[in-house]
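User: Please predict the structure of the protein below. I'd like the answer in structure-token form so I can feed it into my own downstream comparison script.

Assistant: Understood. Taking the following sequence of 147 residues as input:
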Amino acid sequence: MFKHILVPTDGSALSQAAVARAASFAREAGARVTLFYAEPQAPGVYEGVGAISSPHLRQELKERLDQAAQAILDAAEARAAQAGVACERLVLQGHRPYELIIQAAQSRGCDLIFMASHGRRGVDALLLGSETNKVLTHSRIPVLVYR
């Protein structure tokens, strides 16, 4: 039924559990897996007159964000390998993770997005928002939510 599954991960324990379950699901379905991480863009650095900063600060921030992304995907890939599933990796940068998730699924030709939900309710959900909920409401690609 599903041939290519996008599995977004943020590195959290729940997200890693979802990666393991998605890998098992993919193995059973005979589907390919693309692991995805939405990397935040490095914050702007004030570089005007009077700024006290390293001239390489922006590059250092970018490198640390890139290293964190690769570490998160390394852990996810190890989970997928335990389930016997090979996978591709993709990182996109931006400020709205839900848009990046949908963009990644579309650009890679995925026919399912398999993602975790932290299950926040009430005021927490209202204040923190939910990337999963945003993906559910904006995606034209089916979304399977793991909790």
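That's the full token string. The chain has a mean pLDDT of 89.
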